[in-house]
Structure formats: structure tokens, C-alpha cells
Amino acid sequence: MDPLRTYSPTLMRFYDVMFTRFCRRHMRALRVPHWGMPPETDNSATPLVVFANHPSWWDGVAFMLLSRRLFAGRRMFIPMEAAALARYRFMQRLGVFGVEPSSARGAVAFVRVAGQVLAPNRDDMLWMNAPGRFADARERPQPIAPGLVRLAETAPHATFVPLALEYPFWSERKPEMLAAFGKPWLGVALQAMGREERAAAMSATLGDTMDRLAAEAISRDPERFRVVEQGSEGMGGIYDWWRRGRAALTGSRFDARHEWRR
Hints:
Shape: globular
Distance between the termini: 57 Å
Largest sheet: 9 strands, mixed
Number of domains: 2
Low-confidence stretches: none
Order of helices and strands: HHEEHEHEHEHEEEHHEH
Number of helices: 9
Helix content: 40-55%
CATH class of the largest domain: Alpha Beta
Mean pLDDT: 89
Radius of gyration: 20 Å
CATH architecture of the largest domain: 3-Layer(aba) Sandwich
Strand content: 15-25%
CATH topology of the largest domain: Glycerol-3-phosphate (1)-acyltransferase
């Protein structure tokens, strides 16, 4: 199936709302450190490849929210294992296309579709999990799937941007969704390398971005981040209703957050 033909802007807007509500319900916030905002490209018509680590099921939600909030006007396309996509066929209307990672036919099909998405003078984006499998955020070096390594040969005109993802718990009941974009690579620079050198370079730049994000996560300082999407805070339920009512009766400001502030 051709993802460029089946992509539905209307359905994408609908699921943007659904994913946003889901994130707000289950995450405290989606945060990006101030240094980790996406880089500006010299040409808005330059296609992008965003390659991320793959620590969690939540990565797909992060892709949706980040692409819609920080890359306005660009369409996102995502490769997914064909067997998994068969269980979520609606995602084919959201730019997701199936791949067979363990077969030569699948590799050829991936290169063909990726080449269409990343054609010159387009502003579309290809987002993918670099390892090609789930990998702990502390794993070093981060694995880089062979298809991603070969992509620079198919699209040397594209810009390749690393994306680090992490989901730590801080002081609230819900976890944080942390994301950071790293230093971009020009596809032509990656193309000039041999495949082993290219894989090592992409793994290193992704790992460096992950290490910087881990340091920000350890700081537990919300002021070092930009809030992209805010979820609810506090215990929730009857307990917070009671606390809110008590604050109203005493004329004090209600703060649902768990951490004590002066």
C-alpha cells in the first residue's frame, strides 16, 4: 500500500486529538529541554529523517505529538513491522506503512517507499526507531538497524536528526515524557562514509543526545524544559476534590502537585 496515497489529513487531525487526550490522561507532561528543540533547516523543502531510540510502547504517541506540535505543515511517515500493522490497520491512513525487516523483499520495499517519502524538494518526514527493536535507554552503543544505515544512500539530500526519548518518574503519580532532538546530519555527509562508519556515527550522535537527556532527567528540574503538552497533576479522585474544597474554604490557592513548595 502506498502511504502517500492513503494518508488522510482529516483522520490525522482526529487521532491527534485522541492521542493528546490519552497522553494528558496518563502522562504528567511532554517536555523538551531548551537545547533539545528541533533544529532549523536551511530549506523548508528538505525532507527529514528523524531516528529515535526505542525504549517504550509510548514512542508512537511521542512521535505523533512531537511531529504535530513542532513540525507544523510537514507530514510524518513511519515504518512498522507488517505483522504488527495488520492489527492496527487504521494507522495506514496516518502515514504508517508495513515492512518485513527480516526479508530481502522487505528491504527492497522499504527502500522504495522511503525513497518516495524522501523525494527531493519535498517537506515530508520519515520517523523511525533506530534500533529496529525495543532497546533500553541505557544500552550503549545504541543499535542502528541496517535499513536506516542504507537510507543515506537512498536520500543523500535529506537531513537526519537524532531523537532521544525517556519516560522517568519524578515526584508525581504519572511519569514524564521527555524528548530531545540532537545535532543533525546532512545525508550527503553520511553517504560519504562506509556503512560501518556511518552506523557508528549515527549510533554515537543518538547516544550523545540520550546521555544529555538523561542528565536533564536526573536534574528533575521542570524549568530546564519547554512543556509541549501538559497532563494533570496530583492524586486525582476524591482526595483532590477534598483538598480543592478545603483550599476554597480557607481562601488559599489549590496546587495539586505532590512536591511541597514554599
